[in-house]
Amino acid sequence: MENNTGKYFKYAIGEIALVVIGILIALGINNWNSNRIQRQRESLLLSELNKEFKSNKIQLDSVLTKHKYSMKSVEYLMSRLPIKNLKIENLDSLSYHIYHLGTFYTFNPSGGVINSLMNSSTINIITNNELRKFIIGWNDVLLDYQEEEILARDNYINHLKHFEKKHFNYNSNYYKYLNDPRIDLSILQTLEFDNYVQDRRFDLDNILNNSYGELDAIINTIDKIIELSEAKK
Prior knowledge:
mainly alpha, 233 residues
Protein backbone atom coordinates (compact mmCIF):
# COMPACT_ATOMS: atom_id res chain seq x y z
CA MET A 1 0.00 0.00 0.00
CA GLU A 2 2.78 2.40 0.94
CA ASN A 3 4.59 1.54 -2.29
CA ASN A 4 1.43 2.20 -4.39
CA THR A 5 0.73 5.48 -2.54
CA GLY A 6 4.26 6.67 -3.34
CA LYS A 7 3.79 5.80 -7.00
CA TYR A 8 0.44 7.63 -7.18
CA PHE A 9 1.95 10.63 -5.42
CA LYS A 10 4.84 10.81 -7.87
CA TYR A 11 2.44 10.37 -10.77
CA ALA A 12 0.21 13.21 -9.52
CA ILE A 13 3.21 15.52 -9.12
CA GLY A 14 4.32 14.66 -12.64
CA GLU A 15 0.85 15.38 -14.00
CA ILE A 16 0.71 18.73 -12.17
CA ALA A 17 4.18 19.65 -13.45
CA LEU A 18 3.14 18.86 -17.03
CA VAL A 19 -0.01 20.97 -16.67
CA VAL A 20 1.99 23.90 -15.21
CA ILE A 21 4.60 23.63 -17.98
CA GLY A 22 1.81 23.54 -20.56
CA ILE A 23 0.19 26.65 -19.07
CA LEU A 24 3.52 28.51 -18.97
CA ILE A 25 4.23 27.59 -22.58
CA ALA A 26 0.75 28.74 -23.63
CA LEU A 27 1.17 32.01 -21.71
CA GLY A 28 4.58 32.55 -23.27
CA ILE A 29 3.20 31.99 -26.76
CA ASN A 30 0.25 34.27 -26.03
CA ASN A 31 2.54 37.02 -24.67
CA TRP A 32 4.85 36.68 -27.65
CA ASN A 33 1.91 36.94 -30.02
CA SER A 34 0.47 39.94 -28.16
CA ASN A 35 3.85 41.69 -28.23
CA ARG A 36 4.17 40.96 -31.94
CA ILE A 37 0.73 42.47 -32.61
CA GLN A 38 1.58 45.50 -30.42
CA ARG A 39 4.83 46.12 -32.30
CA GLN A 40 2.99 45.85 -35.62
CA ARG A 41 0.46 48.43 -34.40
CA GLU A 42 3.27 50.65 -33.16
CA SER A 43 5.08 50.40 -36.50
CA LEU A 44 1.91 51.36 -38.38
CA LEU A 45 1.20 54.30 -36.03
CA LEU A 46 4.77 55.56 -36.29
CA SER A 47 4.59 55.41 -40.08
CA GLU A 48 1.39 57.49 -40.11
CA LEU A 49 2.77 59.88 -37.50
CA ASN A 50 5.92 60.35 -39.57
CA LYS A 51 3.89 61.18 -42.69
CA GLU A 52 1.68 63.59 -40.74
CA PHE A 53 4.62 65.54 -39.33
CA LYS A 54 6.53 65.64 -42.58
CA SER A 55 3.43 67.25 -44.07
CA ASN A 56 3.19 69.63 -41.10
CA LYS A 57 6.86 70.59 -41.55
CA ILE A 58 6.21 71.48 -45.21
CA GLN A 59 3.24 73.62 -44.19
CA LEU A 60 5.18 75.39 -41.41
CA ASP A 61 8.10 76.10 -43.75
CA SER A 62 5.65 77.58 -46.27
CA VAL A 63 3.95 79.77 -43.64
CA LEU A 64 7.30 81.01 -42.28
CA THR A 65 8.50 81.82 -45.80
CA LYS A 66 5.40 83.98 -46.27
CA HIS A 67 5.89 85.66 -42.88
CA LYS A 68 9.47 86.44 -43.86
CA TYR A 69 8.28 87.74 -47.22
CA SER A 70 5.95 90.15 -45.42
CA MET A 71 8.79 91.14 -43.09
CA LYS A 72 10.93 92.08 -46.10
CA SER A 73 8.17 94.42 -47.21
CA VAL A 74 8.06 95.86 -43.69
CA GLU A 75 11.81 96.45 -43.78
CA TYR A 76 11.56 98.09 -47.21
CA LEU A 77 8.91 100.52 -45.96
CA MET A 78 10.62 101.09 -42.60
CA SER A 79 13.78 102.17 -44.42
CA ARG A 80 11.77 104.89 -46.17
CA LEU A 81 9.86 106.29 -43.21
CA PRO A 82 8.89 109.01 -42.85
CA ILE A 83 7.99 109.37 -46.53
CA LYS A 84 8.47 113.03 -47.40
CA ASN A 85 8.46 113.06 -51.18
CA LEU A 86 6.08 110.95 -53.23
CA LYS A 87 7.54 110.24 -56.64
CA ILE A 88 5.51 108.58 -59.37
CA GLU A 89 8.32 106.13 -60.16
CA ASN A 90 8.25 104.90 -56.53
CA LEU A 91 4.53 104.21 -56.38
CA ASP A 92 4.74 100.75 -57.95
CA SER A 93 7.28 99.62 -55.34
CA LEU A 94 5.30 101.20 -52.52
CA SER A 95 2.12 99.60 -53.80
CA TYR A 96 3.81 96.19 -54.03
CA HIS A 97 5.21 96.29 -50.50
CA ILE A 98 2.11 97.77 -48.86
CA TYR A 99 0.04 95.02 -50.48
CA HIS A 100 2.36 92.28 -49.13
CA LEU A 101 2.43 93.97 -45.76
CA GLY A 102 -1.24 93.08 -45.38
CA THR A 103 -1.01 89.42 -46.40
CA PHE A 104 -1.57 87.06 -43.51
CA TYR A 105 -1.00 83.35 -42.97
CA THR A 106 -1.44 80.89 -40.11
CA PHE A 107 0.00 77.47 -39.30
CA ASN A 108 -2.80 74.90 -38.99
CA PRO A 109 -1.16 71.47 -38.82
CA SER A 110 -2.87 68.14 -39.35
CA GLY A 111 -3.48 66.38 -36.06
CA GLY A 112 -5.42 63.22 -36.80
CA VAL A 113 -2.76 60.72 -35.77
CA ILE A 114 -1.30 62.58 -32.81
CA ASN A 115 -4.75 63.48 -31.46
CA SER A 116 -5.85 59.84 -31.63
CA LEU A 117 -2.72 58.92 -29.69
CA MET A 118 -3.39 61.53 -27.03
CA ASN A 119 -7.13 60.92 -26.69
CA SER A 120 -6.76 57.22 -25.88
CA SER A 121 -4.41 54.87 -24.10
CA THR A 122 -2.76 54.18 -27.46
CA ILE A 123 0.11 56.47 -26.42
CA ASN A 124 1.31 53.60 -24.22
CA ILE A 125 2.06 51.56 -27.32
CA ILE A 126 4.95 53.91 -28.14
CA THR A 127 8.08 52.28 -26.70
CA ASN A 128 10.46 55.19 -27.29
CA ASN A 129 10.27 57.35 -24.14
CA GLU A 130 11.79 60.40 -25.83
CA LEU A 131 9.27 60.26 -28.67
CA ARG A 132 6.43 59.82 -26.19
CA LYS A 133 7.62 62.96 -24.37
CA PHE A 134 7.54 65.04 -27.59
CA ILE A 135 4.10 63.68 -28.52
CA ILE A 136 2.68 64.54 -25.08
CA GLY A 137 4.17 68.05 -25.23
CA TRP A 138 3.07 68.79 -28.81
CA ASN A 139 -0.21 70.58 -28.06
CA ASP A 140 1.42 72.93 -25.55
CA VAL A 141 4.23 73.80 -27.98
CA LEU A 142 1.71 74.33 -30.80
CA LEU A 143 -0.55 76.58 -28.71
CA ASP A 144 2.42 78.67 -27.55
CA TYR A 145 3.46 79.28 -31.16
CA GLN A 146 -0.07 79.85 -32.48
CA GLU A 147 -0.72 82.41 -29.75
CA GLU A 148 1.60 84.89 -31.51
CA GLU A 149 -0.05 84.28 -34.88
CA ILE A 150 -3.51 84.68 -33.35
CA LEU A 151 -2.54 87.97 -31.68
CA ALA A 152 -1.11 89.26 -34.95
CA ARG A 153 -4.20 88.10 -36.88
CA ASP A 154 -6.59 89.74 -34.42
CA ASN A 155 -4.62 92.99 -34.46
CA TYR A 156 -4.68 92.97 -38.25
CA ILE A 157 -8.39 92.17 -38.56
CA ASN A 158 -9.52 94.56 -35.81
CA HIS A 159 -7.27 97.52 -36.63
CA LEU A 160 -4.91 97.39 -39.61
CA LYS A 161 -7.38 95.95 -42.10
CA HIS A 162 -9.72 98.91 -41.51
CA PHE A 163 -6.88 101.29 -42.30
CA GLU A 164 -6.16 99.47 -45.58
CA LYS A 165 -9.82 99.38 -46.64
CA LYS A 166 -10.18 103.07 -45.91
CA HIS A 167 -7.08 104.34 -47.70
CA PHE A 168 -6.10 101.80 -50.39
CA ASN A 169 -7.73 99.90 -53.24
CA TYR A 170 -8.23 96.94 -50.92
CA ASN A 171 -9.84 94.50 -53.39
CA SER A 172 -7.22 94.93 -56.12
CA ASN A 173 -3.92 93.23 -56.77
CA TYR A 174 -0.69 94.91 -55.74
CA TYR A 175 -0.24 96.66 -59.11
CA LYS A 176 -3.38 98.70 -58.44
CA TYR A 177 -3.17 99.01 -54.67
CA LEU A 178 -2.27 102.71 -54.90
CA ASN A 179 -3.37 103.22 -58.48
CA ASP A 180 -6.82 104.72 -58.06
CA PRO A 181 -7.71 108.41 -58.52
CA ARG A 182 -9.84 108.30 -55.36
CA ILE A 183 -6.83 107.47 -53.18
CA ASP A 184 -5.31 110.37 -51.31
CA LEU A 185 -1.62 109.48 -51.51
CA SER A 186 -0.77 112.02 -48.85
CA ILE A 187 -1.84 109.36 -46.32
CA LEU A 188 1.59 107.77 -46.94
CA GLN A 189 3.21 110.84 -45.41
CA THR A 190 1.22 110.74 -42.18
CA LEU A 191 2.12 109.48 -38.75
CA GLU A 192 -0.87 107.14 -39.04
CA PHE A 193 0.79 105.32 -41.93
CA ASP A 194 4.10 105.14 -40.04
CA ASN A 195 2.31 103.53 -37.09
CA TYR A 196 0.52 101.10 -39.41
CA VAL A 197 3.88 99.86 -40.73
CA GLN A 198 5.32 99.75 -37.21
CA ASP A 199 2.38 97.66 -35.99
CA ARG A 200 2.91 95.06 -38.68
CA ARG A 201 6.63 94.98 -37.92
CA PHE A 202 5.91 94.38 -34.24
CA ASP A 203 3.47 91.55 -34.95
CA LEU A 204 5.72 89.80 -37.48
CA ASP A 205 8.75 90.18 -35.23
CA ASN A 206 6.82 88.50 -32.40
CA ILE A 207 6.16 85.51 -34.66
CA LEU A 208 9.62 85.18 -36.17
CA ASN A 209 11.89 86.40 -33.38
CA ASN A 210 10.01 85.82 -30.15
CA SER A 211 12.34 85.99 -27.17
CA TYR A 212 10.56 83.09 -25.45
CA GLY A 213 11.60 80.71 -28.23
CA GLU A 214 8.15 79.48 -29.35
CA LEU A 215 9.24 79.21 -32.99
CA ASP A 216 12.44 77.33 -32.14
CA ALA A 217 10.44 75.00 -29.88
CA ILE A 218 7.89 74.06 -32.55
CA ILE A 219 10.57 73.56 -35.22
CA ASN A 220 12.58 71.35 -32.84
CA THR A 221 9.50 69.34 -31.80
CA ILE A 222 8.47 68.67 -35.39
CA ASP A 223 12.00 67.66 -36.36
CA LYS A 224 12.38 65.34 -33.36
CA ILE A 225 9.02 63.63 -33.92
CA ILE A 226 9.97 63.04 -37.57
CA GLU A 227 13.40 61.72 -36.59
CA LEU A 228 12.19 59.44 -33.79
CA SER A 229 9.25 58.03 -35.75
CA GLU A 230 11.35 57.19 -38.80
CA ALA A 231 11.28 53.50 -39.72
CA LYS A 232 14.42 51.65 -38.68
CA LYS A 233 16.38 50.31 -41.63
